[in-house]
Amino acid sequence: MSTTGKTQTGTLKTPYSRHRTTGASSKVARSQRVGKTPWLMYFFVACILILFIFPLLYLLNTALKSTSEFVTNPVGIVSSFQWGNFAEAWSKGNFGAYFLNTVIYTVCGAGLGTAISLFMGFPVARGYIKGSKFWSLLFTLVLFLPNALMTQFQLLLRLHLYNTQIGYILMVAVGVGIGPLLFTGFVSSIPKDLDEAAAIDGAGYWTYLFKFIVPLSKPALMTVFILQAVWIWNEIIMATVLFSDQNKFPISAGLFAFKGTYSNNWPLLAAATIIVAAPLVLGYLFIQRYLVNGVLGAVKG
């Protein structure tokens, strides 16, 4: 019996052991597969990174060449660094004045647009106005509507704001884009119990909005500001339509005018392009944390 028992026990243990061995092997194989996955992801990320970085490096390489070196070897690596191209482009393109104009348009336009998103998004998110679902749908539909340039042109003309910096700031400020929708999603993640507690303490609508909602919504407000600032900084079509005086151009329109004058001087044109893009890239590196937090908060809401 004992021999049989041992045999039965051995017979019973064998499939279990085999199963346990198979399970352990599958775990090892799965862990090996999981262990290999990050390297594959790193490969794809590296490929995408190269696709984005290579044009920037090529642009920088072109900007540091002399005109004769670029004509001789357009795709070769620069042999003699011409840092003076940046100073020459800055001077000849009048980018100092354009840069100041753009800073004014971006700060004022994005600040006003963020305030508009706040005032529009908060009552819709809390249901303090009738037809909240309609307004949310309207915020989404606005994203797909084309820009009514001729209507804006006629409006500014009749308000005597055509070819004025105030008129341009108002036009770029109302182009809030995804701002109200993003802010509505973020405010929805804030518990409504806070509204009731504030009402019990006697806080009014505006007091509650500025003392409670604004501090809690800093990531979303910063995200709306960044997105609109990026759009205003790169905006060129509206500027060419609403301005007849080139001295009031933003830096993107100034770059377009510079291209028309120095279209054959590629190193100078590349240096001007880097001058226009550099402030935006540097600014994004410092405030990208707010952008990620704001978008994630809006998605959760």
From TrEMBL:
It is found in: Cell membrane. Residues 1-14 have a biased composition (Low complexity). Signal peptide: none annotated. One of its GO terms (biological process) is transmembrane transport. One of its GO terms (cellular component) is plasma membrane. Residues 99-287 form the ABC transmembrane type-1 domain. It is a multi-pass membrane protein. Residues 1-29 are annotated as: Disordered. It comes from the Bacteria. InterPro entries: MetI-like (IPR000515), MetI-like_sf (IPR035906). Keywords: Cell membrane, Membrane, Transmembrane, Transmembrane helix, Transport. The chain crosses the membrane at residues 39-60, 98-122, 134-153, 165-187, 208-233, 266-287. Pfam families: BPD_transp_1 (PF00528). Belongs to the binding-protein-dependent transport system permease family. This is Carbohydrate ABC transporter permease. It comes from Bifidobacterium fermentum.
